[in-house]
Every structure is written in structure tokens, then in C-alpha cells.
Amino acid sequence: xxxxxxxxxxxxxxxxxxxxxxxxxxxxxxxxxxxxxxxxxxxxxxxxxxxxxxxxxxxxxxxxxxxxxxxxxxxxxxxxxxxxxxxxxxxxxxxxxxxxx
Length: 101
Hints:
Layout lengths: L1 H24 L9 H14 L4 H10 L1 H6 L5 H13 L14
Helix pairs in contact: 1-2, 2-3
């Protein structure tokens, strides 16, 4: 099931890039058209692996799906990262803080 969802995600990303290339050829600026659809598939992948909305929020915030879309992370690394977040119950947005001295 996860493999099929990843195939769907790959197809959505490829189609989105084709649309954006055509639009940019017309000198029109635009963000992705299939962003919401891709996000829903990403959410389903997290659910299928045993996660919930809070896990998805953490995983989304980590940028691992963006890394996957940019071919910087393999499928196995993506799945491993998602499973690790679920197993460790990492939820919600990633908290970052900066200290200045």
C-alpha cells in the first residue's frame, strides 16, 4: 500500500512539474497546482504506517517529504524516517530556538 501511495505521490509531483514548466514558458509565475493533492497523499502515507495528524505535522515540518520530492531522500529513507517519528511519538511542529550571547 505504501509503495502504491509513493507511486501516486511521484506521479503528482511529475505532473505538477510539467504544468509549472508550461506555465513558466508563458512567462507566468505560479506555485504548484497539485500541492494540496500531494499533501493528502503524504498524509495517507503517514496514516498507513500507523501515524496520525500530529505525527504528520511533525514529519511535514521536518522537510523529509520535500527532500523526497527533490530526490535528496530515497523511498527507504523516507519510510524509515516516518516510522522513527511514529515509534518515538514525535508530534506537532518541530520546536526551534535560538540563543544569543
